[in-house]
Design a protein that fits this description.
Shape: globular
Distance between the termini: 73 Å
Order of helices and strands: HHHHHHHHHHHHHHHH
Radius of gyration: 21 Å
Strand content: under 5%
Number of strands: 0
């Protein structure tokens, strides 16, 4: 008998993993093809360019997910599932953009190189073990359908340009100025860029992948930021809450009712979901760390506490006023589970590691660790 070919030796799951990994670079390349180059300020932006921009954005999300899963595996957090992959992927993407900005590697014309970097993550996870799917109740499935419906609605709203003030003042302005200059810089005459902390480095990717000189790619960069706020921020919040519901064994019906009540009362937070801001991103990172801290410690690997600390540190160095929430979470953790020097030390050290780059940046350029707050 002849030996089985490579197709026969691969299981169905392995083939699906390979196809999924290849989807990231192929989706990105197809998106760049549809774009046909950065849009110009004096030319119309058509439906094909909109589709191309969204495909490039999906390639970014897929690449960040792959790197997030690699980080999750390195920390021993694979048991946390997609929740950890997405949050850690966003932390990875912000960190890489920050490093590139400091090194002066954020000019235009390197989209394929950055797309290649994104593609490495999903390809590298092929060697990781698969995960068993958690069984959810019918109420849990309906809750998931509701979340998908809300996110899709927001994505549609985020597919048009919104002319509100904050994104143009700093959320989008800072990353664009750095892209034009080829590296991060600040001037006293443009103090608004100092407000660009960890979350805004995600928006730098829109310029790296689709931007161009002379105002090229401004439309794509703004759409990228709006979609990122919806899917990474809003989706991260949903995943963090879903993980918390399972961990705390809360009935899905009660959990859904509670979330809907809070959602209905948060009109201001809802109204900015499809804008290129950072509110939902901060909420996703803060909830991720809080969900870990407020579940029974049991025998969690040290890497899970590192994940919690990193998430809280990034949230704090995105909006310092999130410190009130984080401090309350820490106090509640101590009240529920007591003092454990090793556990608290790991969380504190990881938080400090996440905060340190931004504190140093602000001290160097603004002469104060929390400048301009």
């Amino acid at each position: 008998m002849s030996e089985p070919g490579w197709r026969e030796r691969l299981s169905g799951a392995s083939r699906r993993s390979i196809y999924g990994a290849l989807a990231v670079p192929l989706t990105g390349l197809l998106g760049l093809l549809f774009l046909g180059g950065p849009s110009q300020p004096d030319l119309s932006f058509g439906e094909l360019q909109l589709l191309g921009s969204f495909l490039v954005f999906l390639a970014f999300v897929g690449g960040a997910w792959g790197w997030g899963r690699l980080t999750s595996a390195a920390l021993g957090c694979l048991e946390l599932g997609l929740f950890a992959d997405v949050i850690l992927g966003s932390l990875w993407a912000a960190s890489v953009a920050f490093a590139c900005a400091q090194l002066g590697w954020v000019g235009f014309g390197h989209a394929y190189a950055y797309l290649g970097l994104l593609a490495v993550g999903p390809l590298a996870v092929l060697g990781l073990p698969g995960r068993a799917r958690a069984a959810d109740s019918r109420a849990g499935l309906w809750a998931g359908v509701l979340v998908v419906f809300v996110l899709v609605t927001w994505l549609i709203k985020a597919s048009v340009l919104h002319g509100t003030s904050d994104p143009y003042l700093y959320h989008l302005m800072g990353p664009r100025l750095w892209s034009e200059a080829g590296g991060e810089y600040f001037t006293r005459g443009d103090s608004m860029s100092y407000f660009c902390w960890w979350w805004e480095y995600l928006y730098l990717w829109g310029n790296l992948l689709m931007g161009g000189p002379g105002g090229g790619g401004l439309v794509e960069a703004q759409l990228f930021g709006q979609w990122c706020h919806v899917l990474v921020g809003g989706g991260g919040v949903a995943l963090a809450l879903a993980w918390a519901v399972r961990s705390w064994s809360i009935p899905w019906g009660w959990a859904t009712a509670a979330v809907l009540a809070v959602f209905a009362s948060g009109g201001e937070l809802r109204s900015v979901a499809w804008l290129a801001k950072n509110d939902w991103g901060v909420l996703a990172w803060a909830l991720a760390g809080s969900a870990i801290l407020l579940t029974p410690p049991r025998k969690k690997p040290a890497g899970i506490w590192v994940f919690a600390g990193l998430s809280l540190g990034f949230a704090l160095m995105c909006k310092p006023n999130s410190g009130f929430w984080i401090a309350g979470t820490g106090l509640l953790h101590l009240a529920l589970f007591g003092w454990d020097r090793k556990r608290i030390g790991i969380v504190a050290a990881a938080s400090l590691m996440a905060m340190l780059p931004m504190l140093v940046r602000n001290s160097v350029f603004g002469h104060h660790p929390l400048f301009p707050y």
